[in-house]
């Protein structure tokens, strides 16, 4: 029998705040509820398929043996409990923004007054490259980690995607901790080349680092042809593992929801992270796209959007219009782990490299995890 979680309708009615997804922005909402108390007169539900959030920034370091597999986990269940939120384990498969209902993969229907979406996007490896049993998409990251951990160490790896994520995974897999011999790694960047949008200095340092470690780079599009993985017209066979780091697609339930969406199907939001068509719904992270400006899908933006979601949810519940706005910085700091005890920093036109950069990256990453562990009471 399908279960329905509904808003209350009597004189003591509580408004339901539904957090759809346990992403980087929503952990900031839960953290604020813990520090400052939940909004009065509201009941918060967190809908997530997993009771923990895996911080993707630490995955390349795990591959290279610098972190334990579960060091980069945030305990969502404990955070929700401390925040006074009810954890509903499941995945959103449909949302009706007019009726204010969400349907989950478990057959549950959840009613809400206000909703915030932070589920991330969906993998698009098969759609762009083709189907192959050796292919693993990095989205969702939990499934990627599980599939990498359960299989034998590969001898020959192809990584598709020339962005920062693909670069770090290529370095991490080249230095795979549990491999008896270092895997041969080929990075297929796509026609945009290595690190599109990054400075010449950063691209130069990364290119030299890849060459130094023997990682072959192909500035072509990866695809399958007659069962073979190709870079343009060149075969990259044999390959034991093919990893796709080629960005995310909008979830089908967003594209078909009736929410305003952009050309790529992501939920369109304004500077307040509020849906441009349904002001009782907010969204952040890879599930959303800004209507007023282009903004890359990056964990950096999801993290910084968290306090904006928090402030605006509180104002909506107080009957006031949102005021907080996310204005991205002119540039973002990227710290790319090279898997060999160093990292490369990129900030605007500047780039640097060394062991000190890796120490800085580890410090930032572990501080972020520790902050939420302390709030969850699991430190």
Major sheet, described briefly? 5 strands, parallel
Structural class: alpha/beta
Strand fraction band? 25-35%
Strand order of the largest sheet: 6-3-2-10-22
Radius of gyration: 21 Å
Which of globular, elongated, flat, extended, rod-shaped describes the shape? globular
Low-confidence stretches: 6-11
Helix content: 25-40%
Mean pLDDT: 94
Walkthrough of the structure:
Strands 6-3-2-10-22 form a 5-stranded parallel β-sheet, covered by helices on one side. A 5-stranded parallel β-sheet has the order 12-19-13-14-15, covered by helices on one side. The radius of gyration is 21 Å and the shape is globular. The chain has helices spanning 24-36, 59-63, 76-83, 125-129, 141-150, 164-174, 200-212, 252-255, 299-317, 355-376, and strands at residues 4-5, 15-20, 42-48, 52-54, 73-75, 86-89, 92-96, 101-104, 109-111, 114-117, 122-123, 135-137, 156-160, 184-188, 216-218, 222-225, 228-231, 234-235, 241-244, 248-249, 267-269, 281-283, 288-290, 334-337, 343-347, 350-354. Helices cover 29% and strands 26% of the residues. The protein is an alpha/beta fold.
């Amino acid at each position: 029998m399908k279960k329905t979680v509904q808003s209350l309708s009597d004189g003591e009615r509580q408004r339901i705040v539904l957090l759809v997804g346990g992403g980087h922005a929503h952990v900031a909402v839960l953290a604020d509820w813990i520090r400052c108390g939940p909004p009065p007169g509201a009941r918060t539900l967190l809908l997530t398929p997993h009771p923990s959030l895996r911080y993707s920034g630490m995955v390349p370091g795990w591959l290279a043996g610098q972190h334990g597999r579960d060091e980069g986990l945030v305990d969502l269940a404990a955070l929700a409990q401390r925040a006074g939120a009810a954890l509903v384990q499941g995945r959103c498969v449909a949302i009706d923004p007019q009726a204010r209902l969400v349907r989950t993969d478990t057959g549950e229907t959840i009613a809400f007054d206000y909703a915030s979406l932070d589920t991330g996007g969906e993998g698009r490896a098969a759609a762009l490259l083709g189907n192959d049993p050796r292919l693993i998409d990095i989205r969702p990251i939990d499934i990627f980690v599980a599939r990498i951990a359960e299989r034998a160490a590969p001898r020959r790896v192809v990584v598709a995607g020339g962005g920062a994520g693909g670069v770090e995974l290529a370095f991490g897999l080249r230095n795979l901790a549990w491999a008896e011999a270092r895997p041969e790694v080929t990075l297929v960047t796509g026609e945009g080349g290595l690190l599109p949008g990054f400075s010449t200095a950063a691209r130069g340092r990364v290119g030299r680092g890849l060459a130094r470690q023997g990682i072959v780079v192909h500035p072509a599009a990866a695809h399958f042809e007659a069962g073979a993985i190709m870079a343009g017209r060149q075969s990259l066979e044999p390959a034991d593992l093919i990893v796709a780091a080629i960005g995310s697609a909008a979830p089908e339930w967003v594209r078909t929801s009736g929410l305003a969406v952009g050309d790529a199907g992501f939920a369109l939001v304004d500077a307040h992270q509020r849906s441009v068509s349904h002001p009782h719904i907010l969204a952040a992270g890879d599930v959303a796209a800004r209507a007023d400006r282009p903004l890359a899908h990056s964990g950096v933006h999801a993290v910084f959007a968290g306090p904006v979601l928090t402030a605006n949810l509180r104002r909506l519940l107080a009957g006031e219009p949102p005021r907080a706005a996310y204005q991205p910085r002119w540039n973002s700091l990227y710290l790319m782990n090279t898997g060999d005890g160093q990292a490369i920093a990129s900030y605007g036109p500047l780039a640097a490299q060394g062991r000190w950069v890796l120490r800085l990256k580890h410090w930032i990453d572990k501080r972020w995890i520790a902050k939420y562990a302390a709030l969850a009471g699991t430190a």
